[in-house]
Amino acid sequence: MDNLIVIFISAILVEALVEYVKLIKDKPILLVTVVIGIGIAFIFNATIFNNLGFEIDKIIDVVLTGIIISRGSNYTYDIIGKMTAK
């Protein structure tokens, strides 16, 4: 089960990184969301992979977790935008 969770989380991470690379030129504000997401992960000491029992460097885990957090903010923004659009 843990392997499936890691695959799922890794897929989200890859999707986030690909989207950021594609969109960063058009929307530089996305870089700010990445920095904020990583900052929040550091503040709360958030580690996804280590909490699942996988041994990876803590700093790398926090950075990857921050990227996932920042991508979640974009999903939330998109959903709110679709709900409020006319």
Overview of this protein structure:
By secondary structure, the chain is mainly α. The chain has helices spanning 2-23, 29-43, 48-51, 58-84. Helix 1 (2-23) crosses helix 4 and helix 2 (29-43) crosses helix 4 (58-84). The radius of gyration is 14 Å and the shape is globular. The termini are far apart.
Characterize this entry briefly.
The protein has helices spanning 2-23, 29-43, 48-51, 58-84.
What are the main properties of this structure?
0% strand; mainly alpha; 86 residues
Strand content: under 5%
Q: Any idea what the radius of gyration is?
A: 14 Å
Which regions contain 5 or more consecutive residues with pLDDT less than 50? none
Secondary structure tally: strands: 0
Q: Considering DSSP H and I runs of 4 or more, what fraction of the residues is helical? A: over 70%
Largest sheet, described in full? none
Give the overall shape, derived from the CA principal axes.
globular
* Backbone structural class: mainly alpha
Number of helices: 4
Distance between the termini: 42 Å
If you average the pLDDT, what whole number results? 82
Helix and strand run: HHHH
What's the topology here?
Blueprint: H1 2-23, H2 29-43, H3 48-51, H4 58-84
